[in-house]
Automatic annotation (TrEMBL):
It comes from Chaetoceros debilis. The keyword Transferase applies. SUPFAM superfamilies: Nucleotide-diphospho-sugar transferases. The keyword Transferase applies. GO terms for cellular component: membrane. GO terms for molecular function: mannosyltransferase activity. GO terms for biological process: mannosyl-inositol phosphorylceramide biosynthetic process. This is Alpha 1,4-glycosyltransferase domain-containing protein. It holds the Pfam family Gly_transf_sug. Keywords: Transferase. InterPro entries: Glycosyltransferase_domain (IPR051706), GlycoTrfase_DXD_sugar-bd_CS (IPR007577), Nucleotide-diphossugar_trans (IPR029044).
Amino acid sequence: DEDQDQSSQGNETIHSWRVHHPEWEIKIWRDEDILILQQQQQHNNASSCSAKLNSLYQHAIDQKQYGMASDIARLQILYAHGGLYVDIDYLCVRSVEDLHKEDNIDFYCGASNTGCIEFNNGLIGSIPSHFFVKRVMERIADWFEEYFAEGDESDSGNSFMAENTLFENSKEIEKTPAMSLLSSFLDSDSVQHLSILQKKNKPEKPIRFTPMEVIEHTGPGVLTRELLNLFREDGDSKDDA
């Protein structure tokens, strides 16, 4: 059946990596391993965005969006341990040992054959605590926070983001002439109550992301954008020098 076919394919690809890297330790990361890692990272404050990423990971698992969960987990694993992450369906045809020798390369990733510039997160090599891995994690966490900050988290089951969307006086009031005039006649408690009512009347954000949102914000899309931004920043700094 389909599960047996996938298992057979996984065994074949794992074997191909062992053949070309006989001295490497190969680890299959399972859900329980990732949860332990996330708890350790959050406890040790491994990165400022650990708690947000852990929430997004659990949200993806709850919604059965396992591709998104995997996007997050691979970055957390690489940031903690370094090494090489590959999707389980990637067949190894030659050794990449030279890329991991000391003082050689501290980060690399795959490129997609999509007919456009796209870096692929299905194969990423990195040293532990690499600044770029952290940068991508922070971008994902920022997007997640901004996405739900525009909706009412308590009604959509996303209360873990509620602390980031506190309604403070008139800052949350929609900036229209009528609302600004009305708020100018109200005390602060009434303005806050009006803000909450206004928020609750807005359409709820969907709690399940579309495939394109996953690609764009946690997958190859965010990886490609941040790499291109990094290249541009590096070029600008050299021009200034």
